[in-house]
């Protein structure tokens, strides 16, 4: 997709747009040929309005100098109405939910005249109701003559929305099929050479020993706005506690408060019976908290550093990464090789930069790193977001194995099947408050999605 959008140059082959060969040196070249890309990680500035985000870099000018906001607002409204995107131009992006941000990203590429849209994992952060809305929007775009490349690892969604499906495995096209002639199971076999993995966990391994206790945890912004409101829960050894919520309802801030990354929190956090509320993030890490971050690029990896240096991150004061006050390079390298082997991280070697790995292999490296050193608690934020079904199955297996060995896991995920399948208990967070306890053995993704949006029973 980076090649089709001009972010990377191909070594061989040909790209044709409307039957004519093209060569892209920059994304600007791709945009000039009517190609727009909506990235898996949103590219929006929270502190700007929708209008300012949409026109950024393509500002209409009045008299060649001043930005013509009136013309921009009119054009945005026309596009929004024509494609049913329901976008209000003057709202700050920070006030938008994740579904609305997705529509802003689509509007942004349409504003630039895109007739070919590349959507990279567009449903990764959406609940089922928002996915339905997105698919209605996409069908409207197709009816208007646009072409959409929809990249996803959610095979049921591919089957729902696609007119044709191309399967790629290890960089090679292995099949092109008609959705009417193929099942999700068959697609999985084409993708990874095996059956579709399931996150289901059958036998309970929950003990009576409390690993983490959170009491009345409240997080406020510098301006005094409450974003986590009195959260209280316990996680026992051998238990996976799932937190379900539409993105932006306080789950990221809850995790940051438990990790000690966010100031402005009150309440108590107890790890293995010890109050850690005032501890630094490093001390919490040393006490046995593992952390798979929501955004692996921002918080999980140094992309321009080799894999063995990334192995050290967050674990720099403990063996095998250190000897006294010194970094133990030999020890870190040796343990990185162990992680690469044990977690099937596909890489030419441990000296390559993390940026050279696919998203799935980057994620497996992080999971291997955080599972090392016998953690007491693992915080897993979207552990399989943006990874293929093979890497997804491997990560689920590692989580199940660690749980059986007594690890306590706090699981945050937008994949409702993953939450329901892996969790021993489920809580729903809405506007910063934990509003429901749900039995994962009896709930459906649709009912869970309703509870997350405040439309469920007892809302």
From TrEMBL:
<dbReference type="InterPro" id="IPR003439">
    <property type="entry name" value="ABC_transporter-like_ATP-bd"/>
</dbReference>
<keyword id="KW-0547">Nucleotide-binding</keyword>
<feature type="domain" description="ABC transporter">
    <location>
        <begin position="212"/>
        <end position="456"/>
    </location>
</feature>
<keyword id="KW-0677">Repeat</keyword>
<dbReference type="InterPro" id="IPR027417">
    <property type="entry name" value="P-loop_NTPase"/>
</dbReference>
<protein>
    <submittedName>
        <fullName>Sugar ABC transporter ATP-binding protein</fullName>
    </submittedName>
</protein>
<dbReference type="GO" id="GO:0005524">
    <property type="term" value="F:ATP binding"/>
</dbReference>
<feature type="domain" description="ABC transporter">
    <location>
        <begin position="1"/>
        <end position="195"/>
    </location>
</feature>
<dbReference type="InterPro" id="IPR017871">
    <property type="entry name" value="ABC_transporter-like_CS"/>
</dbReference>
<dbReference type="GO" id="GO:0016887">
    <property type="term" value="F:ATP hydrolysis activity"/>
</dbReference>
<dbReference type="Pfam" id="PF00005">
    <property type="entry name" value="ABC_tran"/>
</dbReference>
<keyword id="KW-0067">ATP-binding</keyword>
<keyword id="KW-0813">Transport</keyword>
<dbReference type="InterPro" id="IPR050107">
    <property type="entry name" value="ABC_carbohydrate_import_ATPase"/>
</dbReference>
